[in-house]
Structure formats: C-alpha cells, structure tokens
UniProtKB/TrEMBL annotation:
CDD domains: SET_SMYD (cd20071)
Gene encoding the protein: msta_1
Family annotation (InterPro entries): SET_dom_sf, SET_SmydA-8
Annotated protein name in UniProt: Protein msta, isoform A
Amino acid sequence: MVKQLIKVAEDPMVGRYVAANVDLAAWQVALVERPLIRGPSQVTGPVCLGCLKSITAESAVMCERCGWPMCSDSKCADDEWHKAECDWTVLRRKQKVEIKDFTNPHPSYQSITVIRCLYQKHNNPEVWAKLTKLESHCASRRGGSKYEADRVWIADYLLRFFKLDPAEWPVEEILRVCGIVQVNGHEVPLTDPPYVAIYDTGSMLEHSCVPNCSKTFTRDGHLLIRTAAAAIDSGGHLSISYTDVLWGTAQRLAHLADTKFFVCKCPRCSDPTELGTYFSGVKCTTEDCMGYALPNVHPSTNDPFDV
C-alpha cells in the first residue's frame, strides 16, 4: 500500500491543518485536488455559467431551460456546475432569467457561487458535509458592513428571487455559506475574469508570509500544491500565503484581518526587519546613516496597528 504524502491533523491552537505524512523533497508535488465548488467571483459582469469566461450581449446564448446567458459552446449549458442555478430557476423560480446589462458588474451574479454551495444540501450531502465543516468566521463577520451587504444582496435576494422557504433555507445558514466562500475561496486565474473555487484539503493549508509551499492550478482547475525550495520533514505543517508576499507587513496584516479574520504572527510578521530584508523599511536620509526607519506594527497584540 502506498503511503499518502500528506494528512489532515488537528491542533487546539490552529484547528485542522495539513501535515507531511512522509518526508517531502524540495519542489515536490504534495497535493492535486479537484474543487468542491467553482463559480464566478462575487463582483463580476455577466459570464458564461459553464466555462466562466466573460460574455457580451452579442456573444451570449441563453440557456434554453433557465435563460441564464451562456457562451456559444453548446456543452456549457449542460455543464455540471451550471445545474444548480439552472434547476433552482426552473423548479423554484419557474420563470426564465433575463440579463440585459452586459457592461457592468451585475448583482445577479453575486449569489451564483453561494447557490452552488446551497444546492449540495439536498443533492450531494457528501459535498455539503465537507463544505459545512469549513471555517466561516460568522462571529467575526456579524455586524460588519460586508456581512450586512451579504444579507441584503445575497440572502434576501435568494429568498425573494427563487421563492425559497425561509424555514428550509434560514438567512443565517445562507450567510454562513457566504462566509465559507469568502474565507475559503481561491481565486483561480484561468479565465477572464478569474473565478472562485473551494477545495476540501486545500482549505486546511495554514497561512504563512514565509510559506513552505506554493499553489498553482492545472488547466482543468485542480489545485496543485508543491513544496518550495526546502524539504519538509514528516509531521511538518504545510503552509501557503493567503496574501501577497510582495506587500509589507502592515499591508499584509490589514488584508488578512479584513478578508481572513485573523492576525498573522508568523516569523516574518513578528520581526520588524522582516527577516533581515527591511522590506517595509525606509532608508534614513541622514547623511552617513546606514539605518532604516521601520513601521511600528505589533502582530503579537489583538490590534497590530495599536501604536
């Protein structure tokens, strides 16, 4: 029996995480994973709901069953991912969708990826169980402007537009799914515009601003995790970066707090010099001074910007 390269473990401090199950060499592929869910980004103009590529009023072909605009490839109307919103439109709304504005971000597309998650509840319980185990950070999101916007533009919209029964589809459950998509969604740059995908094991990879793995995507949208330049011993945690490693500490901390709801305390964020790179430093202008002025950021506190 071939031993699995990685395993999912649990820790009281970090929760579920991915660890090496064997010694992993540098640049080794550790994981290739199909998405649980894929769908358009929350803010997007009309896209084909099969291939997720941008479409125009001239190029769009309406799905014969539901009316959602698709591209000219006839296979897209039968795409497995399109089935969720197509079925809900036919069976619940019972009226075809009419999209008329193809030039601006369209509010109807904000809910598509959430619909595709909710659809699994009755149609694929195994996927639904995996989705609902993922972190939503609802407690941290609740009361914030994004949470309230999701209530209006996604939860209320879905209940009204698709004539859903609130007893079957509680607002809080819809908002929890919104959080799962926001916290665990990966931007996949394989189309224009990029789309969002949620992966099961891939969602449990830890964050580090000095990650020991990199992520990329195969042509068919599978997540590919590869170790970086250093080997990882058996039992070692695998990490990727949830933010842009080319940003300074203040920018990274702000982005992670706003989108992932935690304060990063990795070695790079905890070191004012960013591991001797002085990445956020400003060269002192005093003559003959070789020093750097560094930002006063404290990731060890609850508010890293409390200076």
